Amino acid sequence: MRVFRKWVLAIALFVALILDGTLAFYLHQFMNIGAYGASTWILPIGIMLIGLFDDTNPNEIWLALGAGIVADISTLGIIGVYTVFFPVSCWACQRVARFLPEIFWSRLIVVIIGVTILDIYSWAILTMVGIISVSIKIMLISLAVNACWTIIFFSITYWIWGNLAENYPFLIDLRAYR
Amino acid sequence: MKKFLQNKKLLTTFIVIFLILVILGGSVNLRNKRNTPLLVQSFGNDVVAVGSRIVDIPVGWISGGLNNVNDILNTQTENNHLKSQVTNLGQTKARNQALEAENKQLRSALKLKDTLTGYDLINASVISRSSDTWSDLLVINKGSSAGVQKNQAVMCGGGVIGRIIEVNAASSKVELITTTDKSANRFAVQATASNGKSVHGIITVNSDNNLAFTQVVDSRKLKQGTKVYTSGMGGNSPKGLLVGTVSKTTRDSFGLSDLIKINPAGEINDPSVVTVIKRKVAN
């Protein structure tokens, strides 16, 4: 069971990846207003929160890289969007967490900024490779819709990710220290 | 140059960015060219698809329950509408049977085997959707083991909603017809003008994310409400699949060709059960 405890966070991220797809399918009608829409990003929110809650574990950056590769392959079919953003955002959040107050609101602001960057980054990459052709106007308005949905997903999952990151750090057995 | 090579941080950053661009370019190339994804990718997709099916069960129950309540509230209106349709249904059915029998006889007389209108159906359920708002992708629970192939047309709610872009063993990805992907295969379509002639073109997506019937030589005779079908000319999909109806005809921004807006016939926003269309005639 000790081995299992070390991998709880990885399993949780896999479940988050699946939930992203399922909720995107069921909530799509509510998350889109005309041509503008929001993304279901429980997984990116989770990765950023893990970085904010546990700023000492470098293994989590590798976990974010793995999650990024799986997410890229299973959703977009190209490698380079989540594979880059997840480890970079996890590393950045770990750095920010060192001077950031450990409260809900400060973390919410960091996550909203992170998700907005991810939105712009994914739009830029997908436009560059020709997979999408969405105007800047639509992209900018979608950012606002996305920020609103991010607040909802963040509020629902905040305590879950906090608990997981603090009690089940990736590839670290806390019992060894007790 | 010497300074750049001696600065390890800068050099590492440069190499990492270069590697990312190479991997990105390579994976985009693979996505567009290969008929089936790499074995690792296919396996990964199927593992995620299995997980999606498990998670889909409880979420589907909740969503289904809410939809049932909505259905009960709309029952009376729906019933009145269906009653008016039923009176015509018997006559249409009898006429279809007679035409089908006649068609069969004429085909055998002409010794025709498969035509562009012939196709088989594969029914599938949608298990997830791409989580980002930019790409219009669905994942369905049927793959190559059920006979699904890349580029086959997908229908839902009586109209075409997209095309298969990636096939794994037990799951496939569907790119919706509303996609703005520049490299996506477009549906070759046709409509019958008011003077009885067929008008040919392709389906594209315009800047405000609406479907458009483009590359049309003369659209002036296409009235609002004209049905647009696949022509089967572009390969991949058979002839006669309903794509949508003409809603408005305008000129493009250069004033050179006609741009016809289409109301999609298929259920694009909430497709839970879809049908993959397997064309009988080889491409």
TrEMBL record, chain A:
Keywords: Cell membrane, Cell shape, Membrane, Transmembrane, Transmembrane helix. The chain crosses the membrane at residues 34-54, 61-85, 105-126, 138-161. This is Cell shape determining protein. It is found in: Cell membrane. GO terms for cellular component: plasma membrane. One of its GO terms (biological process) is regulation of cell shape. It is a multi-pass membrane protein. InterPro entries: Cell_shape_determining_MreD.
From TrEMBL, chain B:
It holds the Pfam family MreC. Involved in formation and maintenance of cell shape. This is Cell shape-determining protein MreC. GO terms for cellular component: plasma membrane. It comes from the Bacteria. Keywords: Cell shape, Coiled coil. Belongs to the MreC family. InterPro entries: Cell/Rod_1 (IPR042177), Cell/Rod_MreC_2 (IPR042175), MreC (IPR007221), MreC_beta-barrel_core (IPR055342). Residues 89-116 form a coiled coil. GO terms for biological process: regulation of cell shape. Residues 126-278 form the Rod shape-determining protein MreC beta-barrel core domain. Gene3D superfamilies: Rod shape-determining protein MreC, domain 1, Rod shape-determining protein MreC, domain 2, Single helix bin.
